[in-house]
Amino acid sequence: MNEYGNHDGLGLAKLIRDGEVSARELLDEALARVERVNPQLNAVIRPMTEQANATLEVGVPDGPFAGVPFLLKDLIATYAGVPMMSGSRFFKDYIPDADSELVKRFKQAGLVTFGRTATPEFGVTPITEPELTGATRNPWNLQHTPNGSSGGSAAAVAARILPIASGGDGGGSIRTPAGACGLFGMKPSRGRNPIGPGFGEPWWGFAVEHALTRSVRDSAALLDATHGAIPGAEYSAPPPQNTYLEDAGRDPGKLRIAYSTSPILGRELAPECKIAVENTAKSLADMGHDVEEFTPPVDRDEFIYAYASLVAADISACIAAGEKLLGRKATRKDFELRTWALRKIGRALRGDEITLSRWRLQEFAQTWCQALQPYDAFVTSTLVKTPGLIGNLEPTTSENLQLQALTHLPLGKIATQRSMMIENARALFDYSGMTMPQNVTGQPSMSVPLHWSADGLPVGVMFSGRYGDESTLFQLAGQLERAHPWFDRKPPVCADP
Fold this sequence. Notes:
Layout: H1 9-17, H2 23-41, E1 44-47, H3 49-58, E2 69-73, H4 101-108, E3 112-117, H5 151-158, E4 164-169, H6 175-181, E5 184-187, E6 208-213, H7 216-226, H8 244-248, E7 256-259, H9 271-286, E8 290-293, H10 300-326, H11 337-348, H12 351-372, E9 377-381, H13 397-408, H14 411-414, H15 418-432, H16 436-441, E10 445-452, E11 458-464, H17 470-483
Parallel strand pairs: 2-3, 7-8, 7-9
Antiparallel strand pairs: 1-3, 4-6, 5-6, 5-10, 9-11, 10-11
């Protein structure tokens, strides 16, 4: 078990197949590692030891990850009989009665789920500091955030509790934690992995689920095992020509790649983030790719308002559905202030205003994708800023006053507060405003751990591809992993003995 941290998920599965270790021993080791480092990280917020033991007693399916320990993000992905709190006091006692389709596919892949990981309330912030379970910390520096909303999964994988954990991405929530924790994080194309059944598309189709991993091949092999729409799905991505695992080992050939040091939806790109992009562009050119600087057009304020409006409408609908599900009315005490303000905004917006916001983002998506069509990949920093200190995105005193005012305004008045909505969202976009465009366009996008700051914090570099073309991204990621290996880098807080 001293070698546990030296293997990725496929490597651990091979040890089991070769008879060198048992799935029981791997589970025991993963649980011991939670005990070793989770008190410092607060990444795993609900143990599922009973469920994991039951899985082993029945016998795991003969999938690519047969017997490999796994953690499940506490949002969207339902596991029958296990509470899913979504980072919210309102849902802390909610127990789903069925597995979501993606969870079923995780099980068929052979993964053994032994816990749930922390997430901010409803995943609305790019940090993981919910009032319900407290802040999750970055194993590279405990004073800093692992970002969010898949921050618990990212911290657990980075600290080598396990090699792979689930995540979801509605505005960067796989990619920004991967970038902050020195991991590989792929957001698949919209419709690539199944959502549901039992609920509608999260965040108007912006949100998709997959995983955070230490190796490229684990991400590729898991997507091979899980992709494909369910009947009645609104979206269905085109099937790949090869397996993604094959793609991860295949040379991509000469690609045409654009890069940008623009903050995209933020206002100023941090120097370390700029260095990461520039160094990556040089490395790509040295590899033989055709690289040029290019920034597609975006109206920041228009995008922020439209995106925030649609998220607010979704949060409002989620709470309304929760009221029916739980059989009680929601109150201010059930939610964090920012979430309650979003709910109020969502209730205030008229149907035509919500539809106009949707149309504006659809127009943005067409303009953005047409501008990038000549390129095989588009490279930026994953974050506008390096991983922030714990508490850095808590509302300021003035922001709190504005949020309080929003919650008390009549619904008709709230609908006219466009500038206030943009200003209150500004801090979040100034921190993580690189990732949202790909959630709106549905493009595949990945964060690759190619840079560390002078003070030892990971700085992710993001690559986005054409819709439905994860294959090219996996080929490029595999090439980068071979040229600039990161797998053996260990954070100061690490579960390895």
